[in-house]
Prior knowledge:
Blueprint: H1 5-19, H2 25-35, H3 40-64, H4 69-89, H5 102-115, H6 118-130, H7 133-193
Amino acid sequence: xxxxxxxILTATMVLFAxxxxxxxxxxxxxxxxxxxxxxxxxASIIAAILMIVFLFLGESILKLIxxxxxxxxxxxxxxxxxxxxxxxxxITLFKDEEHTSPDLASIFPLAFPLLAGPGSLTTLLSLRAxxxxxxxIIAILINIIVIFIVLKTSARIQRFLGKNGIAVIQKVFGxxxxxxxxxxxxxxxQELFN
Length: 194
């Protein structure tokens, strides 16, 4: 086992930026309002399991179903694009389940695709090409702890920021998410045509 602090820190920061848990606070609050409650522990554990499993089996799974990493990333970029549009324009594109159960909301769309989404899963595959696997796993676990804390305190964060503060953050992070989606899309669509 070869632990490298620089690799751990870099992988942690990259994942933190892609997962964007702070930017997801408005979505988390909306989900909690719809479902009445979100199981923070369950969502965090499922996201961690998805990321670690994908780290080991991601490329094999994609190859098995005849999809390469770039095609997966393009699909992920489109999902992120529509989530970003919802945040910026304040519209609902995805069908609203009238009574979302707290358990279902904790898994979908929270654990997947919001936390362990195509962006973070694709990022894990590219990190794996550069870094030792144990350093990436530590980076995932650090991010999961941060995610758990944010999920647990989202109500307090909501009270602190107020409705207007959250609306502003939602628009700002919507634009950032849109930019990430466009970047993911353009860099991967080029690879597909090369």
